[in-house]
Amino acid sequence: MKKIAAEILREYGPFPGVDGVNGVSFDGRRVWFASGDTLSAFDPDSGETLRTLDVASDAGTAFDGTYLYQIADAVIRKIDPETGDILHTIPAPGNGGDSGLAWAEGTLWVGEHRSCRIHQVDPDTGEILRSIESDRFVTGVTWVDGELWHGTWQDNESDIRRIDPRTGEVLLSVEMPSGDGVSGLESDGGDRFFCGGGDRAIVRAVSRPRTADAER
């Protein structure tokens, strides 16, 4: 496994009235972040907060191209981002120990925090389709260009990892500065990751390494 230092491009926040960031997603235009009782969106260019929904949001957030998905307590809710209406609810695989949520291949990918696992889940039923083991607490999940990445935060150390989706082998570790944790992870589909900054109530933009170059 190769390790490289994270390049932090920008910090957004601290956001007023927000005690912590629990999950992050990107809808192609807006960055959404979960903060307990609300789900808010900001413009990644200006940093301006654009929208806030009154939705319970304890952990990961995902976007499927039309709808948001949000972990709260022991369930995952499908949410209309324009109205805030809850359209569907499924059980979360970690039964309340979940962290990190991503959408890919028509399915949800859910991190299970202290069990150090990532589950692929049917978005209609909540059925676990398969699971991948990690060796650290999972704090965020995202897919980009066919690559599976997840965040970790344990013992005050945090990284963003590219892993083999078949075996869980860590292929590349992007190490965050000491004390800067990842609480939610999402790709913008290009050269940036958006990472929750935990109880600092911020979101960081972190450069996504092009893995073919970074792994040499």
Automatic annotation (TrEMBL):
Top-level taxon of origin: Bacteria
InterPro entries on file: WD40/YVTN_repeat-like_dom_sf
Protein name: Glutamine cyclotransferase
Organism: Microbaculum marinisediminis
